[in-house]
C-alpha cells in the first residue's frame, strides 16, 4: 500500500499578510467573516501558476483555489506617479495606499502586528483618521461615515475638514451611482443608521450626497405632534426606532425618505406641512433615480412617503378609504411589503421625542383588516359578473367586511 504525499498549499512560499478590516476587527474583538491577504514579492504569473483565480479589474486580485479568500499583489506608486504591482513593492508601501489608519495595519501568519501608521493607537481612541491617499477615491467619503456608524467611532477633526473640502468640490459626482447606493445600503444595515447621517452632516458631506435629507434639518413641525420640533431630528429618531423594529435595510431606507415633502413646504405655512405626503413622492423618485436604487426599495419608499399619515389615522378612516389604502399599497398582492410598510409607519409614529414607547395599535388594526379581507376574491362574487363590475363587486365585499371589523372595534371600546 502506498501513501500519497500531500500537496503543498498554494500559498506556501509566498510572503503573505492579513490586511485591512479583518485585522482591525480582530483587534477590536469583532466577528469578521472575510479575510483579505496581501502578497509581497510575487507576480501575476506566479499566482496563476499556483492555481489562484484572477478576479481583480483595476489591479491584480486572486481567489485562493481552496479557501476562496482574496489575495492581492502589493500596490505602490511607480516613478510615473501611477499605481503599480511591481514585485519590489514593500508591505509599508501597500499599507500607505489604504484609506484610514485603522485599516492600514497588517498581520503576518504568526499573528504579529505590523502597524507603521499607528492605527492601533487610533483604535484605542475609537478614532477614524485619514491616510495621505484618502482623496484618491471619493467613495471613501461615504465609507468614512459608514464606518463611524458601524464601529461607533469618532472622526478626527482634520479628516472631517478634508472630507468637507472633497464634498464641496463635488467629487462624489465622479462616483458611479451604484457604488454610492451600495455604501448607503451597508450603512442602513449598521446598528446605528442615525450615526451615519450625523457623520455625513458633521463633515459637510450630507448636502453633496443626500441634499433632500440635509434640507430637513432646521424645518420646524408642530410641537403638539412632534415634541422634537426639528424635522431632521425626527428622521434621526425614526431611524433609531426602525432599528428596534426591523433589520430590513429596505424599511430603514423608506423611513429615511418618508418626510422629504416637509422640506418644500413654503415657510409661511410653517410649522404646518399639509400635503407633505404627496409632495414627498417626487423627491423620493429623484433620490432613487439619481442613485439608481433597486425597484423594490424605491416602491416601498414611495408607498411610505405617500400613505404613512393614513396609517396613523386608521381608526378614523371609513371602510372605503381603508379598502383603497390597502389597494394602493398593494397589500393583497404583496403582503410582505405591506408588513414592511406598516413597520415604517410605526417607526415614524414612535420616532418622536418622549414617545418612543407609545403604543401603536393602528398597525395591528390594519393587519387585522388585511387578514380578514385577503381571501375575498372572484369566487365570492355572484356568477355572471365580469370585467369592471367584478372589481367593483370585490371592493364592495371588502368594504362590507371592513365595516364589520370597525363595528367590532367600536364595540370593544364601549
TrEMBL record:
Per UniProt, what is one Pfam family of this protein? HD
Per the record's keyword annotation, is Transport included, yes or no?
Answer: no
GO MF annotations for this entry? ATP binding; CCA tRNA nucleotidyltransferase activity; hydrolase activity; metal ion binding; RNA binding
Which UniProt keywords are given for this protein, alphabetically ordered? ATP-binding, Hydrolase, Magnesium, Metal-binding, Nucleotide-binding, Nucleotidyltransferase, RNA repair, RNA-binding, Transferase, tRNA processing
Using the record's annotation, list all stretches that form the HD domain: 231-332
* Cofactor(s) the protein requires to work: Mg(2+)
Q: Does the keyword Signal apply?
A: no
Q: Which InterPro entries match?
A: CCA_bact (IPR012006), HD_domain (IPR006674), NT_sf (IPR043519), PolA_pol_head_dom (IPR002646), PolyA_RNA-bd (IPR032828), tRNA_CCA-adding_enzyme (IPR050124)
Biological processes annotated in GO: RNA repair; tRNA 3'-terminal CCA addition
EC number(s) on record? 2.7.7.72, 3.1.3.-, 3.1.4.-
User: What family does this chain come from, according to its entry?
Assistant: Belongs to the tRNA nucleotidyltransferase/poly(A) polymerase family.
Q: What is this protein called?
A: tRNA nucleotidyltransferase
The organism's taxonomy opens as: Bacteria, Pseudomonadati, Pseudomonadota, Gammaproteobacteria, Chromatiales
Amino acid at each position: 500500500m502506498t501513501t500519497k504525499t500531500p500537496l503543498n498549499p498554494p500559498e506556501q512560499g509566498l510572503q503573505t499578510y492579513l490586511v485591512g478590516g479583518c485585522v482591525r476587527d480582530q483587534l477590536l474583538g469583532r466577528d469578521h467573516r472575510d479575510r483579505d491577504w496581501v502578497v509581497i514579492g510575487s507576480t501575476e504569473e506566479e499566482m496563476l501558476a499556483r492555481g489562484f483565480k484572477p478576479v481583480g479589474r483595476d489591479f491584480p486580485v486572486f481567489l485562493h483555489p481552496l479557501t476562496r479568500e482574496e489575495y492581492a499583489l502589493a500596490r505602490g506608486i511607480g516613478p510615473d506617479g501611477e499605481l503599480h504591482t511591481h514585485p519590489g513593492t514593500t508591505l509599508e508601501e501597500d499599507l500607505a495606499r489604504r484609506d484610514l489608519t485603522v485599516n492600514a495595519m497588517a498581520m503576518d501568519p504568526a499573528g504579529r502586528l505590523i502597524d507603521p501608521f499607528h492605527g492601533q493607537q487610533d483604535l484605542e481612541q475609537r478614532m477614524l483618521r485619514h491616510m495621505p491617499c484618502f482623496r484618491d477615491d471619493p467613495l471613501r467619503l461615504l465609507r468614512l461615515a459608514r464606518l463611524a456608524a458601524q464601529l461607533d467611532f469618532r472622526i478626527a477633526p482634520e479628516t472631517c475638514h478634508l472630507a468637507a473640502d472633497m464634498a464641496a468640490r463635488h467629487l462624489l459626482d465622479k462616483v458611479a451611482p451604484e457604488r454610492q447606493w451600495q455604501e448607503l445600503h451597508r450603512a442602513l444595515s449598521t446598528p446605528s443608521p442615525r450615526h451615519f447621517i450625523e457623520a455625513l452632516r458633521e463633515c459637510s458631506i450630507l448636502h453633496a450626497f443626500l441634499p433632500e435629507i440635509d434640507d430637513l434639518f432646521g424645518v420646524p413641525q408642530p410641537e403638539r405632534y412632534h415634541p422634537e420640533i426639528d424635522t431632521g431630528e425626527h428622521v434621526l429618531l425614526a431611524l433609531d426606532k426602525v432599528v428596534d423594529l426591523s433589520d430590513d435595510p429596505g424599511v430603514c431606507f423608506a423611513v429615511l425618505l418618508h418626510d422629504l415633502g416637509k422640506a418644500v413646504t413654503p415657510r409661511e405655512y410653517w410649522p404646518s406641512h399639509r400635503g407633505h405626503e404627496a409632495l414627498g413622492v417626487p423627491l423620493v423618485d429623484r433620490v432613487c433615480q439619481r442613485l439608481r436604487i433597486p425597484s423594490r426599495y424605491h416602491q416601498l419608499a414611495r408607498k411610505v412617503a405617500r400613505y404613512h399619515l393614513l396609517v396613523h389615522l386608521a381608526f378614523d378612516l371609513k371602510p372605503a378609504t381603508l379598502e383603497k389604502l390597502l389597494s394602493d399599497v398593494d397589500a393583497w398582492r404583496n403582503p410582505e411589503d405591506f408588513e414592511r410598510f406598516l413597520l415604517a409607519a410605526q417607526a415614524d409614529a414612535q420616532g418622536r421625542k418622549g414617545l418612543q414607547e407609545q403604543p401603536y395599535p393602528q398597525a395591528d388594526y390594519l393587519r387585522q383588516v388585511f387578514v380578514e379581507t385577503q381571501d375575498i376574491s372572484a369566487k365570492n362574487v355572484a356568477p355572471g359578473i365580469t370585467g369592471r363590475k367584478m372589481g367593483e363587486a370585490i371592493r364592495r365585499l371588502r368594504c362590507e367586511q371592513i365595516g364589520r371589523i370597525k363595528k367590532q372595534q367600536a364595540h370593544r371600546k364601549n
